Amino acid sequence: MYSEKVYPPPISWLLGALFGLAIGLVFGAPFGAIAGIISGALAAGLVTIGLWRSIYEITIDQHTLTVEGHRVARAHITNCKPLDRIAARRTLGPEADPASLVIMRGWVHTAVKVDISDPENRTPYLFISTRKANEIAELLNKKE
């Protein structure tokens, strides 16, 4: 029904490559070109792996909401509210509930707050970073 993959912005990948180049120069100057190439490739590779592992998918079907391996039955979702940058910051700050589940990436500034009423799960809400907050909120608030 709905699927969104949340990727890091393109500038992050470019900065990872520049970081690898910088590390290569730092180690290449005193230890030689081979050490510089190896250390630069390792640094760029580690940044790339970290960025790749930060990608997550939001899927919504008729019965469940699945985010980063966490599944919530749509029957237990009471409300879904889209959050702009200011509301997201407030929800993560002064209005935060320590029992909530936060799935956030710093490069995504909008989010949804999904209120849950599951008697077997004490999580009051999910905070999910997404670039399509209004679309997700509209879809989850639609009762079938």
Strand order of the largest sheet: 1-2-3-4
Write the element-wise H/E pattern from the N-terminal end onward.
Answer: EHHEEEEHEEEH
Biggest sheet features: 4 strands, antiparallel
Estimated radius of gyration: 20 Å
Q: First CA to last CA: what distance? A: 13 Å
Mean of the pLDDT scores? 93
- Give me the secondary-structure category: alpha+beta
What is the number of independent domains? 2
Number of helices: 4
Strand content: 25-35%
Unreliable stretches covering 5 or more consecutive residues? none
Count of DSSP strands: 8
Plain-language structure description:
The chain is α+β, with helices and mostly antiparallel strands. Helices cover 42% and strands 27% of the residues. The strands form 2 sheets. The chain has a 4-stranded antiparallel sheet with strand order 1-2-3-4, with helices on one face. A 4-stranded mixed sheet has the order 5-7-8-6. The protein is elongated, with a radius of gyration of 20 Å. The mean pLDDT is 93.
Quick structural gist:
The chain is built from 4 helices and 8 strands; from the N terminus they run E-H-H-E-E-E-E-H-E-E-E-H.
Question: What's the arrangement of secondary structure elements?
Answer:
Blueprint: E1 2-6, H1 10-31, H2 33-53, E2 56-60, E3 64-67, E4 70-73, E5 77-83, H3 85-92, E6 101-103, E7 111-116, E8 125-129, H4 133-141
Parallel strand pairs: 6-8
Antiparallel strand pairs: 1-2, 2-3, 3-4, 5-7, 7-8
Helix pairs in contact: 1-2
